[in-house]
């Protein structure tokens, strides 16, 4: 049995501890906002928060997260995620949309740690999130816009 | 364009609710389509809640048809944008055909072009019926009624209403045969920036894609495909696979061995535990180098003539003769959502949920696999996490595999077929590997007197159900963009050599233009340089006087990029122009030489796609097309080891463009009153040649093969 | 024509090209001169110190490398202020507390608690063994370690030990941590001499 919380709810699951968190979130908990893109931590589509820090769920065996708090895109709260989502919609970032949950999780983590990121900060934080539609111009802009909103 | 939008009722069924009856659930919609009478116009549903739902006949995979087609309806309906909704239309050739194909499907950047008048007529008809209903109810002349931003009003009487309250009465109004549509000057919504309807759901995790569908009792299925193209299963041992907790069964199907499990992880572990023996006797066993040798030989022999103009001069008499050979690798589309499909079979009927891009092929294929009639198959077309051509399958191989998986289970039930990234990159349906050979002659005045170009590659359409569309002719998707050039040469001859291999190929975002644009526009630069001409002026000089749209984008991109020749402040600048899918695009690329590696810093793009329905979407598609093309040019090739196995497997060895590699992009949209044309693909072709031309300028090197890093020689 | 080199390598299918044996201190017992013996011991330790399993996370500039060919890390990562990556994508975004074998069984994401880059002062990539030796002995550059603490580190530190348990698809450093510790002990006991630059 592995006990952890997801979006504030407690779970105690009898699942092979090697199972990647990604598939537990999707197949067992039906939290489908977290996406599968590569399975080897190359694309970032599966990014969640593990005890408040971004984490690729596809390479996170649930045996590793005993006692941890997981937050998925569905459970995100706070000024940073709100600013990011509203900046994202304002300039219409998504195209196909598959990678965007992961992009938004990484962008939110960045803004939580660096309120006013430079282009270089954005490159460093977001280089692990692939967007095959190449919405990168708008992702960069939206992060800057969200930072401005947060500045007040 | 004349489109029959109206026959008898606007509405489904005798339910009496009007243009409407919003069917809220996928299942309800699918059931209605399977069993019920059809509405002659199945595009618009207006609910009593004032919401206008447009059934979108084109798959939404990021290129914006949900928003674009809803905009067209809203424009003629005079709806308020906030009341508009979009839903994917189910598979139904009769109701939802692409007018460019005569069957339901999305591709060739046709969504907006073929829908432009159809959706406007649909909206205009609905508006007329709402007005008719209001006139009858209020006892006032219809001509005095106005509709604006979703409000139907009669000024003199002070009466007004939303759409919802009129919807029941409107349903019994006569359907106008050919309702007038607005002139462009009256457009309220068309031509304005607008965020896409699906954007909010794509920023909070609620957007539902195929992989997000879970049905009761559903099993997840992964298939072990042969490691070599053309190989088949000899035998397999599933003992270890069945021992994996959660694996329920293992079945052989025509594409390999399918593992069924109660969850994805178990299915993957089960597949990993399979031992499969493959029969390679009909398989492709050549490595890439060996294939290229064969292609070069065929291209050198000249192929069949697919375009000829003028009498080819004796090149011996030319002041200069240039020759070049280009090599392009196989490419994978690599949409972020790998292929997947959900199928549920019950009592001789099947319902599917997936990103079906060619429902017209998918539906009968599934029916055949299951041994049931096509009318007993319902396909719900879901949002797709990218496609770039990958889901537009003439072979309907994914639908076939899903159908076979369901059939082989030997019982009713729901099954989710999932391809992993490795399955995707090793799974074929690639952009065809291609070789181009060129020869051009220049006279003493720098005039191009002869232009010869032979293309060698596999056909995408021949040998598939799409071959019929070629009507016995060659497959022009193999060399489109080498032919029909706007440039005036003294004489030209274009050849095509068809290559064959068990390696499956498919259209890849901009199809033939993916390689022809590169070959033509870099070789042209080389010829212009030999003739002592500027890349921009040299191109303009080759255009005939009536090439106004070609000239328009080239001049515009030169203007916004501040074109001042190929080198400025130590940076290289290159231009390329392509007309693809009836859209004209020119791009200028700025390249820095960073330690022998090209780094693209800025891109300027001018696009003429006729009326710009939603400039925001057009800019997004140019930005995205540029990024897609750049990542590919820098990094990507699918290669075969001697023996025939694909050497790449995931994003670590088939790298995607990442944010730090993305240049700044400036897009200029040419004002036009021509009918709109597509934007999903046309941003792609000019990028790589413009980049190569810029790289030549800054580094002195010409790039005759792609990708820039790690091409095979 | 200029050659472009954009490294693309099979990170998860690394071939164990560096698998070699590591001799224990006894193998050097017949070197009479103590300093020479000390140098020889350090040369032997160098097989571990310069092995890709160790060097990949001892970069001098920039971020870590990967694989036996030591290509740039993918996805691209930077060192960051705490040798732990950038805000928004640090080491633990992907690397867990233990190696994680990928679902297809053909590779793994390496992991250990803790997991981070060696500090810049301990950057070894591109350095000679003599330079590394000087660096490793210098408390200014070795994290303030005495030689005794250095022994302790080499012989028992968990992250050092990861080099011999690097997970599926990765060749381990030569020998074992136990032998490496013995070599370090013997090297210190013989005066911790460095090879000539």
TrEMBL record, chain A:
CDD domains with a match to the protein in the record: fer2
Record-given protein name: Isoquinoline 1-oxidoreductase, alpha subunit
User: Entry's PROSITE patterns?
Assistant: 2FE2S_FER_1, 2FE2S_FER_2
Matching InterPro entries: 2Fe-2S-bd, 2Fe-2S-bd_dom_sf, 2Fe-2S_ferredoxin-like_sf, 2Fe-2S_ferredoxin-type, 2Fe2S_fd_BS, Beta-grasp_dom_sf, Diverse_Oxidoreductases
Please give the superkingdom of this protein's source.
Bacteria
Q: Where is the signal peptide?
A: none
Q: What keyword terms does UniProt attach to this protein?
A: 2Fe-2S, Iron, Iron-sulfur, Metal-binding, Oxidoreductase
Q: Name one Pfam family in it.
A: Fer2_2
- Gene3D superfamilies under this entry? 3.10.20.30, [2Fe-2S]-binding domain
Q: Which GO terms describe its molecular function?
A: 2 iron, 2 sulfur cluster binding; metal ion binding; oxidoreductase activity
On whether Iron-sulfur is a keyword of this UniProt record, the answer is yes
Q: Which PANTHER family match?
A: BLR6218 PROTEIN, OXIDOREDUCTASE WITH IRON-SULFUR SUBUNIT
Among SUPFAM superfamilies, the record links this protein to: 2Fe-2S ferredoxin-like, CO dehydrogenase ISP C-domain like
Q: Which residues form the 2Fe-2S ferredoxin-type domain?
A: 1-76
UniProtKB/TrEMBL annotation, chain B:
Q: List, alphabetically, the SMART domains matched.
A: Ald_Xan_dh_C
Looking at the record, the residues that make up the Aldehyde oxidase/xanthine dehydrogenase a/b hammerhead domain are 204-282
In the UniProt record, the signal sequence range is none
- A GO MF term: oxidoreductase activity
The cross-references to InterPro entries, in alphabetical order and at most eight, read:
Ald_Oxase/Xan_DH_a/b, AldOxase/xan_DH_MoCoBD1, AldOxase/xan_DH_MoCoBD2, AldOxase/xan_DH_Mopterin-bd_sf, N-heterocyclic_Hydroxylase, OxRdtase_Mopterin-bd_su_IorB, TAT_signal
Q: Which domain of life is it from?
A: Bacteria
| Protein name, as recorded | Isoquinoline 1-oxidoreductase, beta subunit
Species name for this entry?
Paracoccus laeviglucosivorans
Automatic annotation (TrEMBL), chain C:
- Keyword Signal listed? The answer is yes
Q: Which UniProt keywords apply?
A: Signal
Alphabetized InterPro entries for the sequence: Multihaem_cyt_sf (IPR036280)
- Presence of the UniProt keyword Signal in the record: yes
Q: Where is the signal peptide?
A: 1-19
Q: What is this protein called?
A: Isoquinoline 1-oxidoreductase subunit
- Organism, by scientific name, is Paracoccus laeviglucosivorans
């Amino acid at each position: 049995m592995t006990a952890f919380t997801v979006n504030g709810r407690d779970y105690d699951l009898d699942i092979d501890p090697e199972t990647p968190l990604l598939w537990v979130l999707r197949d067992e908990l039906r939290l489908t906002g977290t996406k599968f893109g590569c399975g080897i931590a190359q694309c970032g589509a599966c990014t969640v928060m593990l005890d408040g820090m971004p984490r690729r769920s596809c390479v996170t065996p649930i045996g590793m997260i005993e006692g941890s708090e997981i937050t998925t895109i569905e459970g995100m709260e706070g000024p940073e995620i709100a600013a990011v989502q509203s900046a994202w919609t304002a300039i219409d970032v998504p195209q196909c949309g598959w990678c965007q949950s992961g992009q938004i999780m990484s962008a939110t983590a960045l803004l939580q740690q660096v309120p006013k990121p430079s282009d270089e900060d954005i490159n460093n934080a977001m280089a692990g999130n692939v967007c095959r539609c190449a919405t990168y111009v708008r992702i960069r802009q939206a992060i800057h816009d969200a930072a401005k909103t947060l500045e007040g | 364009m004349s489109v029959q939008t109206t026959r008898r009722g606007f509405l489904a069924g005798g339910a009496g609710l009007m243009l409407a009856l919003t069917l809220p659930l996928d299942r309800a919609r699918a059931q209605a389509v399977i069993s019920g009478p059809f509405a002659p116009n199945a595009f618009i549903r207006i609910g009593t809640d004032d919401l206008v739902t447009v059934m979108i006949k084109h798959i939404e995979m990021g290129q914006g048809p949900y928003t674009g087609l809803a905009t067209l309806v809203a424009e003629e309906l005079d709806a308020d944008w906030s009341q508009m909704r979009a839903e994917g239309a189910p598979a139904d050739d009769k109701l939802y055909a692409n007018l460019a194909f005569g069957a339901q499907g999305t591709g060739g950047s046709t969504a907006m072009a073929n829908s432009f008048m159809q959706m406007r007529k649909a909206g205009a008809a609905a508006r007329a019926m709402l007005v008719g209903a209001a006139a009858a109810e209020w006892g006032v002349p219809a001509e005095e009624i106005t509709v604006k931003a979703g409000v139907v009003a009669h000024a003199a009487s002070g009466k007004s209403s939303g759409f919802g309250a009129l919807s029941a009465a409107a349903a019994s109004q006569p359907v106008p045969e050919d309702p007038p549509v607005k002139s462009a000057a009256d457009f309220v919504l068309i031509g304005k920036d607008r965020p896409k309807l699906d954007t909010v759901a794509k920023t909070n995790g609620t957007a539902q894609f195929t992989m997000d569908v879970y049905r009761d009792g559903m099993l997840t299925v992964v298939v072990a495909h042969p490691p070599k193209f053309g190989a088949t299963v000899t035998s397999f041992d599933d003992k270890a696979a069945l021992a994996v907790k959660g694996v329920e069964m293992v079945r052989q199907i025509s594409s390999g061995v399918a593992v069924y499990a109660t969850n994805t992880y178990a299915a993957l572990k089960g597949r990993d535990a399979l031992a499969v023996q493959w029969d390679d006797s009909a398989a492709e066993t050549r490595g890439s180098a060996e294939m290229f040798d064969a292609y070069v030989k065929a291209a050198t022999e000249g192929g069949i003539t697919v375009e000829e103009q003028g009498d080819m001069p004796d090149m011996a008499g030319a002041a200069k003769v240039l020759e070049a050979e280009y090599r392009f690798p196989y490419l994978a589309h690599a949409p972020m959502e790998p292929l997947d499909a959900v199928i549920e079979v019950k009592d001789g009927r099947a319902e599917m949920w997936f990103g079906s891009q060619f429902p017209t092929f998918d539906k009968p294929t599934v029916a055949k696999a299951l041994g049931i009639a096509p009318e007993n198959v319902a396909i719900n077309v879901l949002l797709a996490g990218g496609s770039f051509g990958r889901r537009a399958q003439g072979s309907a191989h994914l639908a076939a595999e899903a159908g076979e998986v369901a059939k082989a289970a030997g019982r009713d039930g729901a099954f989710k077929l999932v391809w992993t990234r490795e399955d995707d990159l090793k799974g074929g349906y690639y952009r065809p590997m291609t070789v181009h050979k060129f020869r051009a002659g220049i006279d003493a005045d720098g005039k191009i007197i002869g232009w010869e170009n032979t293309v060698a590659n596999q056909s995408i359409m021949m040998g598939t159900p799409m071959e019929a569309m070629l009507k016995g002719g060659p497959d022009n998707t193999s060399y489109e963009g080498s032919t029909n050039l706007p440039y005036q040469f003294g004489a030209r001859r274009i050849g095509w050599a068809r290559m064959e291999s068990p390696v499956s190929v498919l259209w890849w975002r901009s199809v033939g233009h993916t390689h022809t644009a590169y070959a033509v526009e870099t070789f042209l630069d080389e010829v212009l340089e030999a003739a002592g001409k500027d890349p921009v002026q040299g191109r303009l000089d080759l255009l005939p006087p009536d090439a106004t749209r070609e000239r328009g984008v080239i001049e515009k991109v030169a203007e916004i990029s501040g074109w001042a020749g190929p080198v400025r402040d130590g940076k290289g600048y290159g231009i390329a122009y392509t007309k693809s899918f009836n859209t004209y695009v020119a791009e200028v690329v700025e390249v820095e030489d960073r330690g022998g590696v090209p780094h693209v810093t800025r891109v300027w793009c001018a696009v003429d796609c006729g009326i710009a329905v939603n400039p925001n979407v057009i800019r997004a598609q140019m930005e995205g097309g540029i990024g897609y093309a750049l990542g590919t040019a820098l990094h990507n090739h699918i290669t075969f080891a001697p023996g025939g196995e694909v050497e790449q497997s995931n994003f670590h060895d088939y790298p995607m463009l990442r944010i730090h590699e993305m240049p700044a992009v400036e897009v200029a949209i040419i004002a036009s009153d021509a009918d709109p044309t597509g934007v999903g693909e046309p941003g792609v072709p000019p990028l790589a040649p413009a980049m190569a031309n810029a790289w030549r300028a800054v580094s002195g090197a010409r790039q005759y093969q792609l990708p820039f890093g790690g091409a095979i020689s | 024509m200029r050659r472009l080199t954009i490294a693309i390598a099979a990170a998860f299918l690394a071939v164990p090209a560096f698998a070699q044996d590591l001799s224990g201190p006894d193998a050097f017992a017949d070197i009479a001169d103590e300093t020479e013996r000390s140098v020889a011991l350090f040369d032997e330790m160098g097989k571990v110190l310069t092995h890709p399993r160790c060097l990949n996370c001892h970069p001098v500039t920039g971020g870590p490398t990967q694989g036996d060919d030591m290509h740039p890390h993918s996805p691209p990562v930077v060192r960051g202020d705490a040798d732990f990556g950038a805000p928004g994508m640090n080491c633990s975004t992907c690397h867990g507390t233990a190696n994680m074998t990928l679902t297809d069984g053909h590779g793994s994401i390496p992991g250990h608690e803790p997991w981070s880059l060696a500090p810049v002062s301990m950057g070894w990539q591109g350095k000679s063994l003599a330079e590394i030796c000087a660096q490793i002995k210098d408390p200014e550059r070795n994290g303030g370690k005495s030689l005794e603490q250095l022994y302790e580190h080499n012989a028992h530190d968990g992250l050092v030990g990861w080099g011999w348990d690097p997970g599926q698809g990765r060749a381990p450093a030569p020998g074992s941590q136990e032998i490496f510790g013995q070599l370090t002990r013997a090297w210190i006991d013989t005066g911790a001499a460095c090879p000539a630059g």
